[in-house]
Amino acid sequence: MIAINRILDKTKGDRWIWLIIILLSMISILTVYSATGAIAYKKGVTVERYLLYKHVIFVILGIGMIYIAHLLDYKYYAGISKILMIITIPLLFYTAAFGEHINDASRWVKIPVIGLTFQTSDLAKLALITFLARMLTRKQENIKDVKKAFIPIMGSVCVVFALIAWANLSTALMLFGVSILLLIIGRISIKQILMVCAGGSVLLLFIVFLGPRAATYESRIKSFLHPEQQHSDKTYQADQSKIALATGGVFGKGPGNSTQRNFLPHPYSDFIFSIIVEEYGVIGAVMMIVLYLVLLYRCVRIVTQSPKAFGALLAAGLSFSLTIQAFANMAVAVGLGPVTGVPLPLVSMGGTSILFTSIAFGIILSVSRDVEEQGSKKVIVGEIPAMA
Description:
Blueprint: H1 2-9, H2 15-35, H3 37-42, H4 47-71, H5 76-98, E1 100-102, E2 105-110, E3 117-119, H6 120-138, H7 146-165, H8 169-185, H9 190-210, H10 214-225, H11 236-248, H12 272-305, H13 309-333, H14 351-387
Antiparallel strand pairs: 1-2, 2-3
């Protein structure tokens, strides 16, 4: 704990969020170390070697990205968001047409030279949320005007949603939900928001029933609603996850003692929460839920204290995105939602997804740092008359 306090003393921004980042990173390394045993064996390497090259390095890089991002004044992200959107939309088109085809979906793009792949939706989430915060801030004087505010803002949301949903519906739906929350906070009229929801519903139905993954979506929905009517292979992942939850008990089997890691297809990413519950029990599950709830609470405090609209919208959008994704992952693991490929933020194994998540944390801490600095300035100014 002393070492953690020394690290926190060298950082700025909300100390509780920094503490949550450190705890999630530690939990991630411990759980991924346990969950990667089977895949390391299949690849013919030791768990230590596989973990070192595939996860620990990215966790360290992620913390470094958080530190760098939180030192940059959050106001600069307004200009960066415009550049990100210019890059993101063509990249999403490229991914849909020429991306790496994995698990019946083109979601990944291979980075030249280094050979790593990354999901363009991770970049798109960051780009759209920062861009929305920028647009909503700049359009406040004409926020009720359809032509000047509503159409330009919703154009970016609809384009990104459609391009992501084509191959990654769960991520697109969460991003759409975060966008709606930002529109409400940004004072877009409820009538216009309902129009957006109606249009989004039509687009959703089209993608679910006529899109390239229509059969996959239909199968997952049926498996979730009527598991007793499905073949065992259709509900295999959900069944194995429930076994992990059931055998975990109150205190769990202990670190490294999971058995379901050998049966779950993605125990180190999509179903990492199941491994946490199996090894650390109900106590571990409650701890994870509390960490993300505290994260949301601290972010809401930052939003309410931020003196600038852009900072408030930026922190709100990114915090909603992180916490909604976290609870979506946990909901799937416990059987409260159909199976999706949504990772647990800052815990699941995944190189570039950890880096983009880390940048989001860094931006939130940048807003928090500004709130602290503004608060300290008010205190100093307020003390001058008294001293005089």
